[in-house]
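Allow me, if you will, to draw on your knowledge of protein folds for a short while. The matter concerns a single protein, recorded as an amino acid sequence and a row of backbone structure tokens. Kindly check, if you would, that the fold set down in the tokens agrees with what the sequence suggests. You will find the record immediately after this paragraph.
***
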Amino acid sequence: MMDEAPIRALRSLRNRSSLIPWILSLWFTSALVLSSRCIADDSTRHRKIYAEKNRYGGWPATHGIWSWGNEILVGFTAGFYKDRGEQHHIDTEKPVRHMQARSLDGGETWRLEDPNSKNQLLPEGKALHGRELPGVPLPTWRSAPANIDFAHPDFALTLKLNDNHTGPSRFYLSYNRGNDWTGPYRVPAMNGLKIAARTDYLVESSARCLLFLTAAKSNDREGRPFVGEILDHGKEWKFRSWIGAEPKGFSIMPSTIRIGPNELYTIVRHRDSDGRNLRAYRSPDNGRHWQREIDPVDELGAGNPPCLIQLSDKTLCVTYGVRAVPYRICAKISRDRGKTWGPELVIRDDGSSPDLGYPRAILRPDGKVVVVYYFSDATTGPERYIAASIWTPH
């Protein structure tokens, strides 16, 4: 039976008839989504990582996530909260920091780390949602080193951009699980591309690594995804292939896994005149050619990037944020290597704003998934915080 409360609310607006079609549309859309949702896991646990009054935590996907067993490291932006209407609620006139959080117990508890206090991973460039740190001189970018050991057991690589349209981009290296970073190093302009890099890479050997990046389109606007390769421990950087045709809107922020000796599968954040969704591509030849696959997610509201991981039984799992009512963090599962995708699984849907998401996820040794994202809810307040959810895919 239909709830009487919305009916009474609509009757109370009889003198505001112009609002009724909009309210009816919103109510029925929300009811449809809620009635068809699937809960990801009844035992899902939510943990707050960074939540401070009058502060803003955001965008883990822009920074990256790494894991070594039950040790997890994730990066994020920390700034100051400001109500900016329909824009990100971060004060763009105040400085931001590039922070990290580390868990030693599979995401159950976390400690905050500030690499900026050691002059590492310093924020810079036009892409910041705030100011550079005052009084802190920025180091000169160096050429890429020629002795990178990608297979080092404690290795981590992170890439950052100065402008989301034309770059340029820089990267940092760590050989002690992100406790210290060297850099910034300049990302070479492979094929003369204007590269806006975020962190997505696959290590092939101690000397070789594949990068999945975004470059400016032919009109110098973001963006078109492509594959680059680093050879001979960093001595050579080469363009390998485009992922899909140049979009009318943008295709950015690939999230990539290896599903066979030469088979890769990637999902990108896509926007065009028809909407904002997730698109998938498959490569049968280690990233040299790509074919379009079924879209894992058709609609994301204002849009959000994917995070793709592979479970222990080779099942694919993509997590993402939905910037539409109800504001939520979700996942989908594919049991046939990305040929089809199951229903949307709701990890949580108590968001109070579309300003959320940008997830990064890892698979724990016990089979649980830890997904880290930014969020806000009515109980906590208007500030955006960094959260982790621990859940079991079924």
